[in-house]
Amino acid sequence: MEKPINNRAWLLVAPVFLIVAFSAIVPIMTVVNYSVQDTFGNNQFFWNGLGWFQELLDPSTELGGRFFAALWRNLAFSAIILAIEVPLGILVALSMPREGWKVAATLVVMALPLLIPWNVVGTIWQVFARADIGLLGYGLNWLGIDYNYTGDTLSAWITIVVMDVWHWTSLVALLCYAGLKSIPDAYYQAARIDGASRWAIFTTIQLPKMKRVLLIAVLLRFMDSFMIYTEPFVLTGGGPGNATTFLSIDLVKLALGQFDLGKAAAMSLVYNLIVLAVCWVFYTVMTHAGQDYDGNRRPQEETPA
Amino acid sequence: MASITLDHLAHAYRPDPRGPQDYQLKEINHVWRQGGAYALLGPSGCGKTTLLNIISGLVTPTTGRILFDGRDVTHLPTEARNIAQVFQFPVVYDTMTVRENLAFPLKNRHVPRADIVRRVEEIASRLDLSAVLDRKAQNLTADAKQKISLGRGLVRSDVAAILFDEPLTVIDPHLKWQLRSSLKELHRALDLTMIYVTHDQTEALTFADTVVVMHDGSVVQTGSPEELFLRPAHTFVGHFIGSPGMNVLPAEVRGRTAYIEGIAIALPSAYPALPPGARIELGVRPEFAELTRAGTGVPVKVRRIDDLGRTRIARIEIAGHAAAATVPEGLSIEGDAAGLKLEPGQIHIYADGARVAGEGGA
Ligand SMILES: Nc1ncnc2c1ncn2[C@@H]1O[C@H](COP(=O)(O)OP(=O)(O)OP(=O)(O)O)[C@@H](O)[C@H]1O
Ligand SMILES: [Mg+2]
Questions:
Q1: How far is the CA of B52 from the centre of ligand 1 (A)?
Q2: B83, A209: Cβ pair inside 8 Å?
Q3: Is residue B134 domain-shared with residue B166, that is, in the same domain?
Q4: Which chain A residues in 183-222 lie under 8 Å from chain B, judged by CB atoms?
Q5: Could you tell me the pTM of the whole model?
Q6: pLDDT tens profile B258-299
Q7: How far apart are CA B61 and CA B5, in angstroms?
Q8: Are residues B309 and B216 in the same domain?
Q9: Do the beta carbons of residue B201 and residue B212 sit within 8 Å?
Q10: Is the predicted ipTM greater than 0.90, yes or no?
Q11: Which residue windows are coiled coil (chain B) (predicted)?
Q12: Is the C-beta atom of B199 inside 6 A of ligand 1?
């Protein structure tokens, strides 16, 4: 079929192009501009080529060292909270009521933590966990447990992880709940007829049907925890020492604390690329999983062994 | 294998049923013989699925008991009941292969491995699934998925009965015939009780040797396809079975004569026991009502004649009431006036919908 060609069609695309240009491309290009220059103040800039990037990706330099330290901290944090929030979210979703007034009540309670602004979450936990006046911190110390998140690395990490779990498990649970609700009753009835155990029902019906929402939940939680800033900044400010200095916190320190615009620009670009890469991987996996689902009519070439 | 007895069984979905209108299933007493091929026939919403779910234990009845071979199983859970059920829409376990799907009910019941393999192969070949046994169930067509569901119902050799809840709804018409005959073959081969729910009369009449007709939560008639055709126990059965359904006309009965708006029709027997005040109707199937030349038989008005290929059916009016009749070969009707000849032995009298037996028949 011949496609009609009309150059005026560009006019329809132009507004979107302009908006994207001003909201994304132009700001990013200024960052790219900074990342290839150095300055000694006075608004004088010098061409530095890929120098910052080389330094950033070389762990033996000062910049590279702190970048990789923060990156590993971030990855460790994401891994820990995913390992807790996903199974916990599934468990919560499985035990949520299916019908009656309890559904609405549970949903409201579950949604509460999600509605609290992030810096308020940080503040709540900052106060709650303080060893001198906070209910949690004081209580733990009273029980004889040595707990002080401002001085002790382990305490700080545990506090941040618990805070994140408190804040975000609801999201995973709500997504899983939606997935569970979409399973027709006939599946459960068939499973009972087939004599399936509770565990078999979970692994053969519920988990496969939750696969897609779980992927979305993992993606959302990974991205969000990988870019986490506000809560740890309010709670620990990145300390004690650098123990909870995640990439975003380090970036702000570099850019606004030390005013090292070139280094910070290079770091934010690499940070951004990592996020994009992970998104792309998830997107690919997800569209794949999607095809499997409506695969009714799709001829399947591969024959499983 | 067992006979299944429904003893004063009734069910209401709401927890506090007040009157009969709250019951989705009115009181039922019925025995499903061991080895019978039953069809449960009735319009949408009449309670067929509810009844099946009660038999399989997915629903616990409000009142009454269910007995398997005399043993009360009313409060036994599904898992403990030895019953297989196939649902209207295909249920397959997505992550498993077809083989694993078929083996699943056996594996859960700890059947020995060798037996599982044998049963799965046998059922797969009967359902024409052998070629796809090692494919993932998820990627198959709806037809194949429903065959898997059927297969999971059929693999168990120890079941008291297999319940089919409109299992062929999603299946292509030409495959429907094939699957239905496979089911019939399996029924003969395995000597199992099968209860087949449908709202399609052809499906019911071809599958079953006993048809149970339900209407509005009650069983209105149980019988062979022939009985349902020749002696409908309820005007509903007359309407529902046969196409077109039975003609039901308001009538008055005096002695051996029925009067439809004053038109007299001779009856083969007398009905002295008609309850006073009841709504009396005369029922006759179009197959036993033959159109004749005007001036003979009961005077009728012909509205139109449908040519169904093998037969011709006339849409007629008897004293203003719509009816259908057969048009014998060679008869040509001019204008809209004609006569109607009824086969005396095939005229039934109904009081408030229920058939009344005549007395002193010829
Ligand atoms: N879980 C339920 N709760 C309340 N009412 C129900 C429930 N399931 C069914 N009903 C009602 O019970 C009646 C009988 O339903 P049932 O599903 O047994 O009918 P059916 O004969 O199987 O119909 P169909 O041919 O449409 O499958 C219907 O009026 C339906 O609305
Ligand atoms: Mg039904």
A1: 11
A2: no
A3: yes
A4: 184, 186-187, 189-190, 192-197, 200, 203-205, 208-209
A5: 0.80
A6: 999 888 888 888 888 888 888 999 999 999 999 998 888 888
A7: 14
A8: no
A9: no
A10: no
A11: none
A12: yes
